[in-house]
Amino acid sequence: MTAPESRPQAVPTKSSDPGLQSCHRVRHWLACGALLLSIAPSAFAWGDGGHRIVAKIADHYLTSSTRAAVNAMLANDSTGLTATDMASAASWADRYRNKHPETANWHFVDTEISDGDIDAACFGHPPLPLNTPASAGPATACVVDKVDQFTKELAAPQTTDAERLLALQFLLHFVGDLHQPLHASDSSDRGGNDKLVSAPGIAPGKLHSYWDTAFVKRLGSDTNTVASQLIGNITCDQAAIWQTRTPRDWSLEAFDIAKQDVYGKLPAPNSSGTYALSDDYVSTAQQDVALQLSRAGVRLAMVLNGANLKMLGATSPPGSTNPPGSTSPPGDGVLVWVNTKTGVYHCPGSAYYGNTQQGVYMYEDQAKAGGYRPAGGKTCSA
Q1: What pairs with residue 197 in β-bridges?
Q2: Helix, strand or coil, per DSSP, at residue 123
Q3: Which fold, 39-239+246-312?
């Protein structure tokens, strides 16, 4: 069980300028590019509204160069499945799944509440076949592994433009999916799809859909306003905690919420088999949803900033400043993988790149400034 943590307010205090409430120190850290990463049928995690909120929060924390690169990449999408702005594109993977059912398993990890075995829920973590892009990977893969795979592709210089766009589109969605508690758990009920629930003021429906959409809608009817309110309530301490560990850890974090609140606070069913949720259950769910949407947005920004998308043509804006310890402009240099256990960093293309048990993505100048040394003594940018 993860340690207790204060949650963003479900109905945050309003501010005339929510951006002024954000933590500039955290925004700067996110901008530096440090990246700590080592279906249920008919389920759409968060619904379009929740995914829009995640994307809006992420956009708030993007560097100007990353935002420019993301927008330019999305403008090249010719599928017509969604509009090409970032908030709309966050639902692209759901539309794509409708035409490509082989990607259905990629949206969730059904870790059973009874045993917590995430490895079994991830089908044993099958590796990508040699020279196979992540978008063409096996159908038996979970969202944890797909986030890892697409994150590496997004950052790798050798990734084709077409595959990099797909990696971006999947990540915009999957990072959000990863944080929906019922996309990180199962209690032999298809992620809550087999449980009918009711609650005061909410139309009866499936437990899964309540967590996808009903509880999100309780935060507010306008996704822009909800995102701004959540941003205004993200503290420096929270953001610092959220930027740590790996997608696997993030999934287990969501699993803990499912075990403790989604299922742990579920009442016994009534005579008709429906679970009548109390006001207390709904209130806790709203707080959980606010927390998970906020975490997902901060982490999505971290993933995108860490990918060094400047290499696709975006440039640093005039007046940009260097991150602490950096000797080159923000986003310059090679994104390397630092093995935090051994103190060695690895270049893109290395067999160890993104594949050690403990590690973090960061730019090479940051790795050097942090006292890390290149594998084999040879720098990546030489």
Answers
A1: 205, 275
A2: coil
A3: P1 Nuclease (1.10.575)
